[in-house]
Design brief:
The protein is of the alpha+beta class and 253 residues long. It is built from nine helices and eight strands. The strands form two sheets. A six-stranded antiparallel sheet has the order 5-4-3-8-7-6, with helices on both faces. Strands 1-2 form a two-stranded antiparallel ribbon. Helix 2 crosses helix 3 and helix 5 packs antiparallel against helix 9.
């Protein structure tokens, strides 16, 4: 939880922390949430009842869970983003061509947000879903975007969110990360070698409009299929081609 963040309305912060606990625990009772947040049961109960009345959480025999109304807000936010509308059909083609996962990520509040993902016929199951947020430096998608951001902004984002190690291959050193940025700009795409998920390789290209970073797209697959010519030439070529199509279509959408 992020209760240490200074916010103007503390009660809103607590309600949000309650929702985050429900998500993290995949549903919980009043006592469990109170223990997790170190808050009085009465306080947590009041927040849960309020959230329930607002149809943001549901109560299943004393176990509270996040409700589907959050989909309404997230769906609306995504639908009004032009990059989603333009990229969606192209990513479906990319997934069909490669047989793997294809993804669209944008940066929001210094986090990487999976705005859209679709699966080819050979795609393996992953923990990501639409709206899933990650630390930018842990993914090829995030690194592809950061490589084209202003350096001062990138350093601010890293200072704000840190560089946690998700696997033993996650980049946790700023100097190493900035060296990778130079390589990404030179070859046009970023690589994630098991840096967020063990056994998975990801190749991502940024979506750019002059100096503005619109997002990034990627193909990800198990490392036994992401090697040799397919890894070095075929997948990068397909990702870069689709990224170019999306960028061109964005100018005319």
């Amino acid at each position: 939880m992020q209760t240490e963040i200074d916010v103007p309305v503390k009660a809103t912060r607590v309600s949000f922390d309650v929702v985050e606990v429900l998500r993290a625990l995949d549903g919980a009772g009043v006592t469990e949430v109170a223990d997790e947040l170190d808050l009085p049961r009465s306080t947590v109960h009041d927040h849960l009842r309020t959230l329930e009345e607002l149809e943001l959480v549901v109560n299943e025999d004393g176990t509270y869970k996040t409700g589907t109304r959050f989909l309404e807000f997230g769906g609306y936010a995504r639908q009004r983003m032009k990059v989603f509308e333009v990229a969606k059909p192209e990513l479906q083609k990319l997934a069909e061509q490669t047989g793997e996962h294809s993804n669209l990520m944008v940066e929001e509040h210094g986090r990487g947000v999976f705005l859209y993902k679709t699966e080819g016929e050979n795609a393996v199951k992953l923990d990501t879903y639409n709206g899933y947020r990650v630390h930018l430096q842990t993914t090829a998608l995030g690194k592809a975007m950061m490589a084209h951001m202003d350096e001062e902004r990138v350093r601010d984002l890293l200072d704000r969110h840190g560089m946690p190690a998700i696997t033993d291959r996650t980049v946790t050193d700023e100097d190493v990360l900035f060296e990778q940025f130079e390589e990404i700009r030179e070859r046009g795409y970023a690589i994630d070698r098991e840096e967020r998920v063990r056994g998975m390789i990801c190749i991502a290209a940024p979506l750019l409009d002059d100096d503005e970073v619109l997002g990034a797209i990627s193909v990800s697959g198990p490392k036994n299929r992401m090697q040799g010519e397919r890894f070095e030439e075929e997948i990068p070529r397909q990702v870069l081609r689709i990224a170019n199509v999306i960028e061109v279509n964005m100018t005319h959408a």
